[in-house]
Specification:
- The chain has 394 residues and is an alpha/beta fold.
- It folds into two domains: 167 residues, 3-Layer(aba) Sandwich (Rossmann fold); 182 residues, Dihydrodipicolinate Reductase, domain 2 (2-Layer Sandwich).
- The protein is 35% helix and 20% strand.
- The radius of gyration is 21 Å and the shape is globular.
Length: 394
Amino acid sequence: MPSNRRSFLMSSAAATALRGAPGDKIRVAMIGAGGRGRDHFNMVRSSGENVTIAAVCDVWKVNREAMAANVEKEFGAAPKQTTRYQDVLAMEDIDAVLIATPDVTHPKILADAVAAGKDVYVEKPFAVEIADARMAYKAVKASRQVVQVGTQRRSDPGLMAAAKLIQTGAIGKVTRVSMEYHFQEPRWRRDYHMIKAEDIDWEAFQFGGRMKGPFDARKFREWQLFSDATSGIAGLWLCHFSDMMAWYLNDPYPQGVMSMGGVYLWKDGRETSDVFQSMLEYKDCLVTFAMSLTNSAGNRHLWFGTKGVLDPEALKVTGDGSKDPDRVMQPYDIRKLEGVESHMANFLRCMRTRGTPRAPVEAGFSHAVAGCMAAVSLQTGRKTKFNRETLEIV
């Protein structure tokens, strides 16, 4: 590492540690003030930490100004406003950024943020293309910044308790997992009649050409439906559950993935699937993940072990299907862990201690690998594998 780069990292880490002392107020900036950004706002104000939102960045004037007004009302001071995330990273008084932007932009903003000496809370998915995931992962590992990925299930008291049961062998060896989530709705479709070109920094939204084409109010408002902004269900939803696989099984990457799906019902010009299914093979464990927007059949989430079955959503354990003499004899409810701080509070506390948050960059990279493998398989119709040495999909 060049000496000037090393000096910058050491000085920025020291500055962050100093500002993160118990009596100091942490100053964060929001990059993205839409629906998920509003969740970030609520998580920050309820975190119990000595923190303020000092800047708001959003390419849409309406969201940006509305959020700035909420921040001023809640924290007592008007935040700085900008449409360009680079402006936020240049602000020396900002300790951390909260990234809630379209999926394809997450890795680049994250990498630029840690290079600028900012700690980062970045929304899932960590990335939707493997080259971007690899780039951001290496950038974070080369820095001294605290990074929390927004897979907030890692801070769910019930799911944390279920993870401990799996890891301590309560249901024996897990060889099969089934996950299904169903909705009958044109998910991610939104009203866009109010969108005015003069209110949007379209060049910033295009993100260096990643979002293609001239101004398009629908693409701006419904970016989840377009392939240049996201990988669809593989990125928007599978990330939650591939994260659980890496977490529960302590196995970071699938050995192989196969996916199928398409637009079977909501033929409204969307480019991302409304029906999707993927098979992910981990070491000695096969996982199926399915999601549809065509029928509200409910959810199914079961972990099949040699001694029983665990349902982490219902927090139930049974001995169903097991012939093991040590099987689970009586069904029981999983007891949630107590005193668990929120995902955002965990991030802010780790900023002060310089500790490792619950969803560190390694976890983000793991779920991104699975999601990227699933997306590539869907695109190509072929099984994908992952090279753990080169960190490439093959």
